[in-house]
Design brief:
Elements (H helix, E strand, L loop, with lengths): L4 E7 L3 E8 L4 E8 L11 E2 L1 H16 L7 E8 L3 E4 L18 E2 L7 H10 L16 H11 L1 H5 L4 E4 H10 L4 E2 H7 L10 H6 L7 H4 L6 E2 L11 H7 L6 E2 L3 E2 H9 L19 E6 L3 E7 L2 H5 L18 E5 L7 E7 L3 H9 L4 H10 L8 H12 L14 E3 L17 E3 L7 H29 L5 E5 L6 H11 L3 E4 L4 H13 L6 H8 L2 E5 L6 H26 L2
Parallel strand pairs: 1-5, 5-11, 5-12, 9-10, 13-19, 19-20
Antiparallel strand pairs: 1-2, 2-3, 4-7, 6-7, 6-8, 13-14, 14-16, 15-16, 17-18, 20-21
Amino acid sequence: MAEIFYVGVDVGTASVRAALVTREGLLKSTAQEPIGIWEPESDHYVQSSTEIWEKCCTVVKKVTHGVEKSQIRGIGFDATCSLVVLDQSFQPVPVSQSGDPQRNVVMWMDHRATEQADRITKNGHRVLSRVGGVMSPEMQPPKLLWLKENLNESCWNKASHFFDLPDFLSWKASGSLTRSLCTLVCKWTYCPPEGWDASFWTSIGLDDLLENNFSKIGSVTSPPGSPLGDGLTQEAAADLGLDPGTAVGASLIDAHAGGLGVIGADVKGFHLPCEGQPITARMALICGTSTCHMAANCSNSEMRSKQHAYPISEQPLFVPGVWGPYLSAMVPGLWLNEGGQSVTGRLIDHMVKGHTAYTQLQEQVQQRLPFAGENIYSYLNNHLSSMANSCSAVDLLGSSLHVWPDFHGNRSPLADPTLKGMVVGLSLSQTLDDLALLYLATMQALALGTLHILEAMKEAGHEIRTLFLCGGLSKNNLFVQIHANATGLPVVLPDQTEAVLVGAAVLGACASRHYSSIQEAMEKMAKVGKVIQPDREVQSFYERKYKVFLRLLAHQRECQALMSQR
């Protein structure tokens, strides 16, 4: 009997990837293509939905080359939570002053709508309780309001369809306008089972979106992994090189796909504190350009229940400064809280590549090219090990250099986009050693930021016992170890390093009906690869460093208050 495959497609910040995945969750082949990013103004980031779809087709054809089309039973898409704008004929509409219609995507990290987000927060509508009490400029309502107020003629009046990028991809594939609960609940204020709150849109000046039962932003919804339409349309099948009718699953935001690819893995035999506990004892960290912190929650009675591992939530947890609780946004029937850091991998790149010694670092790495797998970060990791005494941990090298990592604002748990980055402890020295120490201090700050989020969730009632990491930064051994050390929690890495692609393939598997539910597919397709335990010898070091971390925040706010005085 011929082997069955699913295709997972992941659209990240700067690239499109695809994977051919087996029913057991093993990656048979992968492909990647870059996508363009334009910055027409400061804090404005735009892309092209036409280019993104073309690159999706390219990578799918690459990973399915040589495989019989009949063997591919389903396809799933995930993407960044960017905003796609189309007109009545489903053609691109420009989202910047340049007027170029091909640049029709407002990226997730675009902060042009900070002022609109502030106004929405001050409006104090009840929907804000589901987003930590503060509207982020990375969500869609403030971006929509900005388009109406600033590009009324060239964009707003021409627009007939506003998609989250994951929903745009599933529409291109299936022709179905059904939106995923993941996108609408997490980024648009949709709240099942009630649906849209018309009073919210009216209160912020976007009552024109109520027309025709909210058709511009989505009248019909479905849980992630639900089959859409009749599968691939004739046109999409030809574009992708697959059979018409191949099952298409309702999409996910990229971070949530990563969550599916790791958080449901069977941990029996790994002696983890989450073993035998419901999924609520786990947190998934999807670490790339930014980091998302995913945690499910349920009522106390269900926490005590051992009848099933994936209980239906009845009592959602509200965490100030943390998005959610969102019902069925990742796992059907469970509430989801979502913390996050707006820049992680991007911050590390910024700190390293902006340092005076970066050229020297590149030269050193170039000389070591014969060593397999060497890159600037593995080199820095090795360099830090050589700087540390054989009897002491690398972590201790960061005792006199401290970073506050919010160079692009704070997403969680402070929900303050106005915060800036800080570095304390610099000298006049600019050697390669200094670059390595700044790199170390940055990773430690990001890990302490995760601890900050965990503390906020714990105070609200979460009981996280194990971290599950995936994404590009999870391939950096030192980054992972520092997260275990700083939080005091074991870290699980997936068997398949591209867990986000596995999560996208899970959607196709569910849509094909080969698995009865997301939960079953998660258990069968997500597997534990490696467990990293925290180093207890540096626990007191991180307790002290965390106190310094919080003092940096207090100092920055004190400075802001002083400079705001007249």
